Amino acid sequence: MSASTPSMRQSGPAGARGSEEPTGQVEPAPLDGSRPSLKLQIDLPGGCRIGPGKIRLLTLIETEGSLSKAAETMGVSYRRAWLFVQQINAAFREPAVATPQHGHGGAAARLTPFGRELIARYTGLAQLAELQGAGVIDWLEAHEKSQ
């Protein structure tokens, strides 16, 4: 891949900070350890990562109508959600979320057409990964040690 091409990484559930469950039309695998799972994360050259957590935040901004309600629904602080939005917006030539000046004032954060397209394209790619990876997940599950 060239330096300007995002890399794609698929990994299992991470207990690390910042991992959230997938959203959209892709059904998340159970994270209770009952079976292996697959998570799609796109690492952009500038250092931003687009994965299920940020896509979920964008989706919730659209459905909830504001960043504060989206953060509350996700169970994250407003500040953390705001930082996610800033990371996403800084990664692309156009913003995914239009925000009021200084994050305050009467206007709520809203998704832009680019933000909606980002959700749709990520979700489509995640669905392909789930479909293509199902056999590998089944194979891994069949070869796990019994607990």
Tally of DSSP β-strands: 5
Strand order of the largest sheet: 1-2-3
The Rg value, from CA coordinates, equals 16 Å
Class computed from helices, strands and strand pairing: mainly alpha
Helix content: 40-55%
Task: Count every helix, treating DSSP H or I runs of 4 or more residues as helices.
Answer: 4
What fraction of residues sit in β-strands? Answer: 5-15%
Distance between the termini: 40 Å
SSE arrangement, N to C: EEEHHHEEH
- Low-confidence parts, pLDDT < 50 over ≥5 residues? 1-29
What coarse outline follows from CA principal-axis ratios? elongated
Mean pLDDT: 80
For the sheet with most strands, the description reads: 3 strands, antiparallel
Characterise this structure.
The protein is mainly alpha-helical and 147 residues long. It has helices at residues 52-64, 67-74, 78-91, 113-142, and strands spanning 7-11, 39-43, 49-50, 97-98, 110-111. The N and C termini lie far apart (40 Å).
Please summarize what this structure is:
This protein is mainly α and 147 residues long.
Descriptors:
5 strands; disordered N terminus; elongated; 147 residues; two-stranded antiparallel ribbon; 11% strand; mainly alpha; 4 helices; 3-stranded antiparallel β-sheet
